[in-house]
Automatic annotation (TrEMBL):
One of its GO terms (molecular function) is hydrolase activity. The chain crosses the membrane at residues 40-60. Residues 132-234 form the AB hydrolase-1 domain. The lineage of its organism: Bacteria, Pseudomonadati, Pseudomonadota, Betaproteobacteria, Burkholderiales. InterPro entries: AB_hydrolase_1, AB_hydrolase_fold. Pfam families: Abhydrolase_1. Keywords: Hydrolase, Membrane, Transferase, Transmembrane, Transmembrane helix. This is Alpha/beta fold hydrolase. Coiled coil: none annotated.
Amino acid sequence: MSLSAAGIRRLAVTLQAAAALGIAAGLVQLAGWPWPGAVAAGVAAILGSFASGIAFAFALSGRGLWVGRGNHPPAPPLELAATRRPLRLPEALRCFAAECVAVLRMFDWLQPFRAHAPFAAPLDALPGRDAPPVLLVHGYACGQAIWLDMQPALAAAGYRCEGIELKPVFGDIDDYARTLLAAMRRITAEAGRPPLLVCHSMGGLAARAALQLAGDEDVCAGVVTLGSPHHGSALARFGGGPNARQMRCGSPWLRALAAAETPRRRARMISIFSWHDSIAGPPCTGWLDGAGHIALAGIGHVTLLRHPAAVRAVLDALAELSARGH
């Protein structure tokens, strides 16, 4: 029996705590440190390794290291490329610090210990607008708890949100697509209208694959992807499972997915991405020809799930897709 994403994260937190205590015990026994200082040093060492890993992710993703030249994402249109600019040092430090906080909160609190927390109930829809249901789709090695920071804002805008758990954690994205399509069909039948999808990271690829399976079936009102690696991720080479292999830059799976999509299907998608994503990189991987785009800057991959600018972008994208349905 495989562990859930929450179970994996609880195990990771346990190992982190054990490592910190092990360092502390070593300092007490070998260097004569007092326990309070030794424990603080142990925690600092774990947090330091945490931050180092995030810095490595930023560096690798930002430069697209170890991605073959022929596998780099295509260049986006000039008007979109013009929104990209390098960060000044204070901006880069804020981006890095915010991502460290977001990752620590997400993977050491929300996912391991808030996996079954309920979503906020929606407020009444805005006058003159009947908000469609929204299905929230998580990314690689995650669960629906990743949406706990953003979902209240969607509920406040009148959207009734539902999450989904894509299992197994290190499975095949095509299997996730079938699970997702079944959920879309169920919501359509229950609500009397197809849902909008908001998808983080790998979830956007699963949604695209689900739409391919659906064909002309009316089970989706539109897709918002958030930090999705539409052309692959440089970091996927370090991941485990078929889903990580499918997300490698230039993978046969990604090429086949893109080749099967029609302009009409792409037109129902809006890709929100950050030029400074710490996971979905190289930077142009968020561009999807034929889709709508909202480009952000100075926001890391996990921070996209809680940053005010990203939340506003998701609300704007949902409003645009909702308006198309009327």
